[in-house]
Amino acid sequence: GLLFEIAHKIYGDKYGDKVYDVLRFVEAARSGDRWETFWWDTPWDPGVKVNAREMLPIAEQCLKDIRGIAADRTFTTDQPLPVTPAELANLMAAHIDQLARYFRFTVDMEELHRRADAGASKQELYAELERIWKPIPDFNAVIGVWGQPECRAQLAAVWRCCARTGVPMPKRGLLFYTIRKRYYEYLVSECR
Predict the structure, then answer these.
(1) Calculated CA dihedral for residues 86, 92, 146, 49, nearest 10 degrees
(2) Are 51 and 44 a contacting pair, CB within 8 Å?
């Protein structure tokens, strides 16, 4: 298919198969396999599409592979690109890292819900939520107006958890500042 061809055209025999595996992972975990599912505003719910517990080790392996490729500054391609293959791999690594963090968070949230169902106190649940909720950074990824989907999905999961358990929402100043800034930018752009 097209992903295989692109991976091998740019990365050749040396890295083509690994890059293809990484692209297939992103396709399964985030973008889907059709043009209609690729857009950033497509409803994204990884819990429906994939199992976080199964995807986490795949994400971690893909991240290791793509970082290894990004570290090889000597590799070149005969394909005309505006960046080096290492820089392109670095851009991919940011997206893989976001997915890996999201899947780790989702697995941890499943455990938090099990503890809630078993009768853990609100104080215990709040402490656990504080520990596991680390807003996923944008890194240098191309993210769109509303930020990357993993951070949006993570925030929605925390809101649902707090509503379900009665635990207060942990404070994340920079995240909430960024969300307000994005709303403001949207409103300003719509008023022109």
Answers:
(1) 180
(2) no
Residue 136's Cα: distance from chain center in Å? 7
pLDDT tens string 15-42? 999 999 999 998 888 776 666 665 555 5
Burial 24-55 (b: 16+ CB within 10 A, else e): bbbebbbbbeeeeeeeeeeebebeeebebeeb
User: Which pLDDT value is given to residue 1?
Assistant: 84
Cβ within 8 Å of residue 129, ≥6 positions away: 112, 158, 161, 162, 167, 170
Contact 25, 59 (CB under 8 A): yes
> How far apart, in whole angstroms, are the C-alpha atoms of residue 168 and residue 165?
9
Say how far apart CA 19 and CA 62 lie, in whole Å: 9
- Residue type at position 94: A
What is the chain's Cα-based Rg?
Answer: 19
DSSP 8-class letter at 27: I
Contact call for residues 22 and 93 (beta carbons, < 8 A): no
Q: Which amino acid is at 16?
A: G
Distance CA 154, CA 161 (A): 11
Question: Looking up tokens 């690994």, which residue turns up?
Answer: 18
